[in-house]
């Protein structure tokens, strides 16, 4: 509990007063500034010493608190508080006019901080005020009891009886908490028994109690921190060790190396630069400083560090620094300056000794970039004459330079030199050779070296190389089987069940590989393989794009925008004549302002809750008003980023849906179509949307529930309200619905009202009324269509059947007149159809329906005398001709239907033999 209270005290001390928050920020900036200047170790003015008094238990500082705050972090906070107190004291010593009240408030705050610290005080001993030697009587005199216990503990330690020494040393700490030797001995004990974490914590206390007397302890702490992998503590201890022993360059090197390991390259560069300032002759520090500055983008600083050293040395050349300077200049495309530096070094240092090989090669590379190929080849002659394992890096650099600048023949010459050194060659070298041959249009050699490269373990997962090789093979004849094998998963993968050795994302799961493989399958008509290859990637892409669309739609206004809106409510003053009245603004603007005010209040309340929770947990509260709440969730990258944007991917979706329809996987096809249409933006061409909707309507007709395809059919009709083909597509989907959709009735009514002279919606509406036996309303719709198209055989048939059905009802008074009108329309249909088999059958069926069986028999007999040939079924707009509906021969012939109805008439009249003969002649297979 004391541990936790200490953490809370440290956390509360940093958040006790809002009016001092700026002071803290300024102090923190000063601390950071001191660190940038070398952590202030040279001046030695700010040395803080820890002193315990009161009832504080020093052992609490050797344990992590309940919130994971380590002891060194507690000391960092204590030093921070001490430095802040020092700054406030300096401000109070020279207060400005009217600041006395603020000074008293700061004194009161300091008193509360001291109380919360439980007696721990960090104070600064000024070096300027310190005199050499000690004051008389300043030596701490230990009590006899403490001296006795220390002696006993040392004896136990010498005898390696560590368990007996620990309680005695802890008792000494409670009696004399400011004695650093006790903590040091406890650290030694814990290190001997293997508890290095506790040893580090006791060493930390010993070092803080007497920091100037124990520089070796800080160095030991650095070694232990690095050994334990605690980089935060290692950095802290290194700064303290450097302050304790500023002359130790090894510590500074360790700190710089630690910054490099942590990726803090700017701090590493400054640390190495400090070493250069202390020891200008240190070549290693100067080289590392130049590298780090170059990594941070400070090229001029990097070059300056190296040039200053090289200009001052006219003898004993440091070729490594000259080489590094040339490399940095070349990396920044300063090849002329790099060549000048190399030539300058040659003229000064090479009167007796030869220029190093690496610099000669770099000079040649500079000549290549400057266009002096002949001069460069002279410098490269030594590589051709003497190439071995030591020169592989230089030869590769020359080959890469020629390749990058488009000199592929020269690049191949040096790549083959590398191949002579290593007969087997590696995958990267074979890849470079293949790309050179590809640029030289030598496809045969390019294919050979691509195959060698992909045959190595290092390059087998290179997707771009695999796709390039696949494109080359497709250009050759009869190479599709090789391409399929190249892009398919390896055979051993299908047989193995151990996935632990498999990479996280194998190359065969790459979307580009699957697309290329899918195109080959589709071109060869292998629809099942085509679907299995590309369907998962398309599904995942559509799902990912749906999630991304939701993220984009949930746009949150930033705090600055909300505050600007709230100003509308605050835009009136208390001394205004119109105070008490609402500000003049549009109602919509006022509504936005009130919502913005409510949102800001909610955010402020949430912020206060978080602040209270953090402070209660003993942590530091760092206010962040940088509109963090307005940051959106990270958008996920789909496997096929351009699926809905370019023609190639659109055709892929279309081919996939058609393939699914051909395989009778209708629901999957509709899923792809509907998701694609929902995600299509304004850049999606209208004709492509229409093509997808038409395909969706066709697929929907073949499903058990075509509701999913209804929207596609409706959209086609909206775009082409005068097209009979579009209405045929719409009605083909509607006719499959078991229950009428409410939106279908509403849509049909709107089309009837909008397009009053459009015939198809009248006919469809009449069909719907006929299905629910509302024959009078149906006849009215059919007659409206008849006024527009009186010569349509279909409309005449519909009017005739509606009037006959109406005549058979009970409420009609003039039944005979209605019946006669119905037959008149049927005979008009017979005339317009040129007495076709279908028209004759309809007349006979109507006569049978109203009881005129004698007339029905005559028309049925005429139907039996005719033979009707089969006609192809009409196709819907954009319907795929490859999707064929299987129909038996004779599906357009009505003789079987007519014979069956005729046998019913004979049977009802008692002529059973005649009825049996009709069935035998016309209805037997």
UniProtKB/TrEMBL annotation:
Q: Known InterPro entries for this protein?
A: Tfc4/TFIIIC-102/Sfc4 (IPR039340), TPR-like_helical_dom_sf (IPR011990), TPR_rpt (IPR019734)
Q: Where does the record place the region Disordered? A: 1-48
Which residues are the signal sequence here?
Answer: none
* Gene3D superfamilies hit by this protein: Tetratricopeptide repeat domain
Naming one, the record's GO cellular component terms include: transcription factor TFIIIC complex
Spans of the TPR repeats? Answer: 180-213, 249-282
UniProt lineage:
Eukaryota, Viridiplantae, Streptophyta, Embryophyta, Tracheophyta
Phosphoprotein among the record's keywords? no
Report keywords, A-Z. Answer: TPR repeat
Give GO BP annotations, semicolon-separated.
transcription by RNA polymerase III
| Name of the molecule in the record | General transcription factor 3C polypeptide 3
Q: Which PROSITE patterns match?
A: TPR
Where is the sequence biased in composition, kind Acidic residues? Answer: 18-46
User: Is Kinase given among the entry's keywords?
Assistant: no
């Amino acid at each position: 509990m004391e541990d936790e209270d200490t953490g809370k005290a440290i956390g509360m001390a940093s958040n006790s007063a809002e009016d001092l928050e700026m002071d803290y920020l300024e102090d923190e900036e000063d601390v950071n500034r001191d660190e940038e200047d070398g952590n202030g170790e040279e001046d030695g003015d700010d040395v803080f010493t820890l002193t315990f008094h009161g009832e504080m238990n020093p052992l609490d500082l050797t344990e992590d608190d309940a919130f994971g705050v380590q002891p060194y972090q507690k000391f960092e906070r204590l030093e921070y508080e001490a430095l802040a107190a020092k700054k406030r004291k300096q401000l109070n010593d020279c207060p400005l006019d009217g600041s006395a009240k603020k000074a008293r408030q700061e004194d009161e705050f300091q008193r509360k901080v001291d109380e919360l610290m439980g007696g721990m005080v960090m104070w600064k001993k000024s070096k300027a005020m310190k005199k050499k030697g000690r004051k008389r009587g300043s030596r701490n005199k230990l009590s006899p009891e403490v001296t006795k216990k220390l002696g006993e503990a040392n004896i136990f330690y010498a005898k390696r009886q560590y368990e007996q020494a620990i309680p005695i040393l802890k008792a000494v700490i409670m009696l004399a908490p400011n004695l650093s030797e006790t903590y040091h001995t406890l650290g030694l004990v814990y290190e001997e028994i293997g508890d290095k974490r506790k040893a580090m914590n006791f060493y930390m206390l010993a070092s803080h109690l007497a920091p100037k007397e124990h520089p070796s302890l800080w160095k030991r702490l650095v070694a232990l921190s690095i050994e334990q992998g605690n980089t935060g503590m290692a950095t802290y201890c290194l700064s303290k060790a450097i302050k304790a022993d500023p002359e130790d360059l090894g510590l500074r090197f360790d700190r710089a190396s630690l910054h490099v390991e942590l990726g803090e390259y700017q701090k590493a560069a400054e640390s190495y630069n400090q070493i250069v300032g202390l020891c200008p002759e240190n070549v290693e520090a100067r080289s590392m400083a130049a590298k780090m500055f170059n990594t941070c983008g400070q090229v001029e600083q990097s070059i300056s560090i190296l040039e200053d050293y090289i200009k001052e040395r006219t003898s004993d050349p440091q070729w490594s620094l000259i080489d590094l300077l040339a490399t940095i200049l070349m990396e920044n495309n300063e090849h002329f300056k790099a060549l000048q530096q190399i030539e300058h070094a040659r003229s000064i240092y090479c009167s007796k000794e030869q220029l190093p090989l690496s610099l000669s090669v770099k000079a040649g590379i500079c000549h290549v970039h400057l266009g002096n190929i002949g001069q460069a080849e002279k410098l490269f002659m030594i590589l051709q004459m003497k190439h071995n394992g030591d020169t592989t890096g230089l030869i590769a650099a020359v080959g890469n330079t020629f390749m990058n600048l488009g000199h592929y023949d020269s690049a191949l010459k040096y790549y083959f030199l590398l191949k002579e050194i290593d007969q087997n060659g590696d995958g990267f070298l074979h890849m470079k050779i293949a790309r050179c041959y590809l640029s030289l249009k030598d496809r045969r050699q390019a294919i050979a070296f691509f195959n060698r490269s992909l045959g190595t373990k290092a390059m087998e997962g290179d997707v771009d190389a695999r796709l390039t090789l696949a494109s080359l093979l497709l250009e050759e004849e009869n190479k599709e089987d090789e391409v399929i094998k190249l892009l398919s998963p390896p055979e051993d993968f299908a047989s193995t069940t151990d996935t632990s050795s498999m990479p996280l994302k194998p190359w065969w799961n790459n979307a580009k590989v699957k697309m290329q493989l899918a195109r080959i399958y589709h071109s060869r008509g292998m629809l099942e393989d085509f679907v299995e290859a590309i369907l998962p990637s398309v599904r995942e892409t559509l799902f990912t794009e749906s999630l991304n669309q939701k993220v984009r739609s949930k746009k949150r206004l930033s705090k600055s925008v909300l505050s600007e809106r709230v100003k509308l409510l605050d835009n009136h003053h208390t001394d205004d004549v119109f105070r008490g009245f609402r500000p003049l603004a549009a109602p919509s603007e006022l509504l936005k302002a009130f919502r913005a005010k409510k949102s800001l209040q909610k955010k402020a309340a949430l912020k206060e809750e978080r602040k209270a929770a953090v402070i209660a947990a003993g942590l530091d509260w760092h206010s962040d008003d940088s509109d963090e709440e307005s940051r959106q969730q990270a958008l996920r990258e789909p496997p096929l980023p351009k699926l809905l944007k370019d023609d190639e991917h659109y055709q892929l979706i279309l081919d996939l849906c058609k393939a699914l329809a051909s395989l009778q996987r209708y629901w999957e096809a509709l899923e792809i179509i509907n998701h694609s249409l929902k995600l299509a933006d304004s850049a999606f061409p209208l004709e492509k949307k229409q093509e997808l909707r038409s395909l969706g309507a066709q697929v929907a007709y073949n499903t058990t529930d075509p509701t999913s395809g209804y929207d596609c059919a409706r959209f086609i009709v909206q775009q082409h309200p005068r097209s009979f083909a579009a209405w045929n597509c719409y009605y083909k989907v509607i006719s499959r619905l078991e229950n009428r959709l409410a939106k279908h009735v509403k849509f049909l009514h709107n089309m009837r009202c909008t397009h009053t002279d459009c015939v198809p919606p009248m006919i469809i509406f009449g069909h719907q009324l006929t299905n629910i036996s509302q024959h009078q309303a149906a006849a009215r719709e059919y007659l409206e269509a008849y006024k527009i198209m009186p010569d349509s055989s279909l409309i005449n048939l519909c009017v005739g059947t509606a009037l006959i059905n109406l005549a058979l009802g009970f409420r009609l008074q003039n039944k005979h007149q209605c019946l006669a009108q119905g037959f008149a329309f049927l005979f008009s249909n017979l005339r317009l159809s040129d007495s076709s088999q279908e028209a004759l059958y309809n007349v006979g069926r109507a006569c049978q329906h109203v009881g005129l069986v004698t007339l029905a028999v005559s028309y049925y007999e005429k139907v039996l005398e005719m033979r009707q040939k089969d006609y192809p079924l009409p196709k819907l707009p954009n319907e795929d001709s490859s999707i064929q509906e299987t129909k038996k021969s004779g599906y357009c012939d009505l003789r079987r239907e007519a014979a069956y109805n005729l046998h019913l008439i004979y049977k009802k009249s008692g002529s059973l033999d005649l009825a049996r003969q009709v069935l035998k002649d016309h209805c037997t297979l």
